Amino acid sequence: MSELRWNxxxxxxxxxxxxxxxxxxxxxxxxxxxxxxxxxxxxTEVPAETYDVVVFENKFPSFHRHPPAPAIEDSAFYPVxxxxxxxxxxxxxxxxxxxxxxxxxxxxxxxxxxxxxxYKALGDLxxxxxxxxxxNKGKEIGVTLTHPHGQIYAYPLIPPVIVKxxxxxxxHHEATGHCLICDIKDQELRDGRRVVAENECxxxxxxxxxxxxxxxxxxxxxxxxxxxxxxxRDRSDLALIMKQxxxxxxxxxxxxxxxxxxxxxxxxxxxxxxxxxxxxxFYPPLRQAEKLKYLAGSETxxxxxxxxxxxxxxxxxxxxxxxxxxx
Amino acid sequence: xxxxxxxNETETAPSDAQAPHLVVEKEVTTMADGKRQMIFYNFSEAxxxxxxxxxxxxxxxxxx
Lengths: 327, 64
What we know:
The structure holds 2 protein chains of 2 kinds. By secondary structure, chain A is an alpha+beta fold.
């Protein structure tokens, strides 16, 4: 069963998705459902031997285009809603052992074009208010399938973290007339100590307020709200800086770096959101090669993050690993 | 702790000269279960006139 339940204590919705208990969990490589179907082999999700990027609806979705009726009755105190939305899987490569970091910069560009198309198509659906593009990479994050892939959740409402960013951005704009994320980006560029990489259109930095040791935000220098406002140069520079960052990440501990990649864009509910600004947030969970930064009591129970590191030192570490990228 | 960034230390080489101009071919199908949608994106490189910076019309996605 799948439904939205209102949390009156925090003032936010959560979704139940009981069928996800049955989803495939770390299958052996020979039985990866995300690999292409091989001649004479078992039938996977992908009936093609090769492709550049493929996107399909998740077999075990948290949100459904045609959601089932909620398992419990709605009430004024505990509102319940159908979990109407769309969950998609984005395959980065037919190669089971590839990682995004190891793919050529051109593949990043292809991915950005596919993401743009999905943001537009899903955002155009009347019942979709927010299109969230993300990747969970690595067993440390809890991925159940290791084939290189990301996901898209098209929500019927604006999710809580984005609501908070929008509120802060709105308040800052009301008070100063400026975009908050433009001001953060300008402050990081002026200071420079936390900048990791930079090109004409984008800057990557560990923000002053980082919660994770290697958290990096990738922000366009122009005031852009979503992929729909990208020009060709924006796309190519984003592809280059993402590739630089992910290669550098893999150099930090000399192993494939696990991370959560979260693309924050304007909602798709029809309002303008002129005060908001596209950016990508990367959260690697490692604080040392074999030590995870756990979200324990303070972080999870109180929402008060404890960062065991200084952003300035970690930025210098990642910056030293940035290398030029060629097409 | 003093970890100052050197000017241009993180700059990439100029990227616009070699940036590929991609044209997408999109194929929308229905998956084997007859319910779910699947989209294949395959790209080819188009020849450019060498200009791909800001000032383009912003509508260069060629159907993507």
